[in-house]
Amino acid sequence: MSHLKYSVLFMRDDSDVRRFRISPFWLKAFLYFQGFLLLLSIVGISIGATFWSGNAALRAERKSLELRLSEAEVQLERLTNIEKMQAGGKDGTAAGKPAPAPAEPPAPKLPPVNLRDLFGKVNTAQVTVENFQTRVSGNEATVSFELTNVQSVNTLSGLAELSLIRNDGQMLGVEANRADLSFQIQRFKHIRTAFSLPKGVDRRDVFGLRLEIKGSDGKTIFSDTFPLRDPVAS
Question: Over 80: is that where the pLDDT of 231 sits?
């Protein structure tokens, strides 16, 4: 039994039969080696899937951190402008500027500014607004943003409304094309519109834009304020 060997025959139609003898040790070694390769492949696939899942989690966390950083920058800019407006309201005149002559009539008193109306947020978790961009050239303004239906199971329809916020805190409506701002989306829509600045207002008078997204029932499902960042057009 110690000299037991297996015979392997190779037969072809156009040649003689070839026989190879192999011992049980080498046959078992070959089978074990194949099993080892299979086990090694399974372990490699498992490790690869683990690393891929970890990499996807890191990418998602990075995107979340970038979004939070962008929101923090916008909030800081808003707070800075609020402080400037409040400081201007307390001082009445700029530092180093002489007081107006008594003979001049007083400037018309502006209505009080409600900061909640200017910077209050509404988010019912039905839509998200990303890549909000505003460009002003002369007296014309262009606005674009990406609107995403978070609950993509049902179609969402409604209307986006824009308002200008001046540096003194006054809010002005704009006449934009209603067809550009209306939407009926299942998942995603890129919205772009253009409008003229109100009469007597130029880019230097504008602090930012107020965006309100309303559903088909007229209720506000999203609102936020976006300060202008692009330089003043020459």
Answer: no
Whole-angstrom Cα distance, residue 135 to residue 141?
6
d(CA 182, CA 54): 40
Cα–Cα distance measured from residue 183 to residue 160, given in angstroms and rounded to the nearest whole number = 8
| Cβ atoms < 10 Å from Cβ of 133 | 13
**Residues 104, 101: Cα–Cα separation, whole Å:** 6
Please tell me the distance from the alpha carbon of residue 171 to that of residue 202, in angstroms, as a whole number.
14
Q: At a CB cut-off of 8 Å and minimum separation 6, what does 44 contact?
A: none
Mean local confidence (pLDDT), 42-50? 89
- The C-alpha atoms of residue 100 and residue 220 are separated, in whole angstroms, by 44
- CA dist., res. 65 & res. 29, Å (int): 54
Cβ distance 61 to 69 under 8 Å? no
Residue type present at position 59? R
Show Cβ contacts of residue 195 under 8 Å, excluding neighbours closer than 6 positions: 140, 141, 143, 162, 174, 175, 176, 177
Buried b (16+ CB within 10 A) or exposed e, 67-98: eeeeeeebeeebeebeeebeeeeeeeeeeeee
* pTM, to two decimals: 0.51
CA separation for the pair 99, 80 (Å, rounded): 26
pLDDT one-digit tens code per residue, 164-203: 998 888 888 888 899 999 999 988 899 999 999 888 888 8
Tokens linked to 135: 């460009």
Computed over its alpha carbons, how large is the radius of gyration of the chain?
35
Strands 206-215 and 188-196, by their bridges, are: unpaired
Backbone φ, ψ for residue 103 (5° rounding) = -75, -20
